[in-house]
Amino acid sequence: MPQDTFADRVLTFARSHILLMDALLAGVLFVLTVLPQTPSVNDAEAAVSLFLVAPLILRRTWPMFTFVLVTAVSLFQLGVLHDFLAANVSALIVIYSVAAYGQRWAGRVVLATGLLGAPLGAGLYHDSSYGSDLFVTVAFTIGVSVVAAWALGTVRRSRLQQIAGLAERARLREQERQQELRLAASTERARIAREMHDVVAHSLSVVIAQADGGRYAGRESPETALQTLEAIAATGRQALSDMRGLLGVLREDGTALHAPQPQVGDIPGLVGELQASGLDVDLLVEGAPRPLPAGPSLAAYRIVQESLTNVLKHAGPACRAWVRVHWREDELELSVIDDGRGASAALVSATTAWSGEPAPPGTAVGGPGMSGSPTPQAVSGHGLTGMHERATLYGGRVGAGPRSGGGFAVHAVIPYPRGT
To answer: Which residues have a Cβ under 8 Å from the Cβ of 406 and sit 6 or more positions away?
Structure first.
C-alpha cells in the first residue's frame, strides 16, 4: 500500500481536530483584519472585530448559532459604530459555513439575510455628495459576495454528501463481503461436518465389526486375531489421517497438508476393507466407467460409504449386502441393499413417506428381492440427510427405506456433468 504523504497527514489531522483548526482560522483572521489597522482602530472597533471573528471557532460545530452571533454583532456595529470593519468578512465565512455544514433550510435563511443586509452594509458608505451610484455599487458588490459565499458552501455541501454516500456504499460493500465470507465459512464448516461424520462413523463401525470378529476368532485362531488387530490399527490410522486432513483446513497458518479426497474409483477398495472386516458384501460394476469431476465423484463415494456404514450399524448379525455401480449413458446409478432386519428398518418405515412408484428399471443386482423396491420421497436420519444433500448438490436424487422382503435399500442417481 502507498505510504501517506505529508499533505495526507495534515488533512487527516485537520479533519480530526475541527475546533482547533477553526480556532486557528479565527486567530489568523483577527490578526489580518485588526493588526494592520492598529494605529487607526480604537478599542471599541477592536472589540467588535474580536466578537466578529471569535464565533468562527464554532462555524462547523454549530454553524447556525455562529451565524446568529455574527449577525447580532454586525447589527450592533451598524447601530453604534456607523463604520465598516475589515473583520466584517467573517459574515461571508459564516454564510459559507452554514450553507456547507448546516441544514438546507438554514442555508436559505442565511442567503436571504445576507441579501437583505447588503443595502444596510452599503448604507455605511452612503454619502449624499456622491449620489446614489456608490450606494448601488456597494450594495451590488456585497450581494454578489453573499451569493458567491453561499454558492461555494452549497458546492461544498454537495461534495460532502457525495463523500458520505461513497463511504456508506463502501461500508455496505464491506458488510456484504464479510457476510459472504461468513456464509462461505458456514458452508465449509457444514461440509467438514459431513466429511467428519462419514469418516468417523464408517471407521468406528469397521473397527467395532473387526473387534467383534477378532474376539471370537482369537479363541481358536490367534493368527486371525492378529490380522484383525492389524486391520483395526490400519483403519484407525487412516481415520486419524482423514480427520487431520479435514481439520487442517481450519488452521490459519496455511501449513496443513491435504490428502487427496476419495473418488468413485475407490469404491472397490472400500468394499474390500469391509469384506476383510467380516461383512458379507458383493460389488457389481456395470457399464463403462466415465471420468467425473472431484465433487460428484466424492459424493458417489460418500453415499456408498455411508450406506455400508449403516449396514454395519443396523443390519444385524450375519447380514449380507450388495453394492451396485451402474454407469449409464447419462447418469451414474448407485444401489446399496442388505437383507438384514436391524433397528433402522423399523425407524425409517415409521418416518419415511413412500411414493408408491417402482424403483427405476434395472435395479436388480443379484441379491434377493432387489428389484421392484419402492422409492421413498423423503430421506430421514443425519447420515441419510447428508447423502440427500450431496446428491442434490450435483442435480441427483437419493431414495432410501426398508425393503418389503426385509432389509434396507439405498438408491442414488447422480447425472453426469455436461461435457463428460
So the answer is: 339, 340, 341, 345, 369
Tell me if residue 419 falls in helix, strand or coil: coil
Our CA angle for 355, 316, 380, nearest 5°, is: 30
Rounded CA-CA distance 20/408 in Å is 80
Alpha helices, H only, 315-381: 343-351
Calculate the alpha carbon distances from 82 to 44, 75, 79, 113, 119 in Å: 12, 10, 6, 19, 14
Strand partners, 338: 321, 408
Strands 331-338, 408-415: parallel, antiparallel or unpaired by DSSP? antiparallel
Phi, psi of 298 (to 5 degrees): -65, -40
Per-residue pLDDT 10s for the chain (420 aa) are 445 677 778 778 877 888 888 889 888 888 888 776 666 667 788 888 888 899 999 999 899 999 999 999 988 888 787 777 888 889 999 999 999 998 889 989 999 998 988 888 777 655 554 556 777 888 888 899 999 999 999 999 999 999 989 998 998 888 888 877 777 766 766 666 666 666 666 667 777 776 766 766 666 777 777 777 777 777 777 666 666 655 655 554 444 445 567 888 899 988 988 887 778 899 999 998 888 887 788 889 989 988 888 888 777 667 889 999 999 999 999 999 988 754 444 444 433 333 333 333 333 333 433 443 333 333 344 577 778 888 888 889 999 888 887 788 999 999 998 766
Return d(Cα 122, Cα 125) in angstroms, integer: 5
Q: DSSP 3-state assignment of 413?
A: strand
The pTM assigned to this predicted structure is 0.46
CB atoms within 10 A of CB 8: 11
Domain ranges in the chain with CATH number 3.30.565.10: 264-420
Residues 6+ apart with CB under 8 A from 13: none
Q: Residue 324 — φ and ψ, nearest 5°? A: -125, 125
Residue 307 contacts residue 408 (beta carbons within 8 Å): no
CB atoms within 10 A of CB 356: 8
Give Cα 300 to chain centroid, integer Å: 30
Decide: helix, strand or coil at residue 294.
helix
Q: If one looks up domain 264-420 in CATH, what number appears?
A: 3.30.565.10
CA 56 to chain CA centroid, Å, is: 45
Q: Which three cell numbers stand for residue 322?
A: 450388495
| Chain-centre distance for alpha carbon 396 | 28
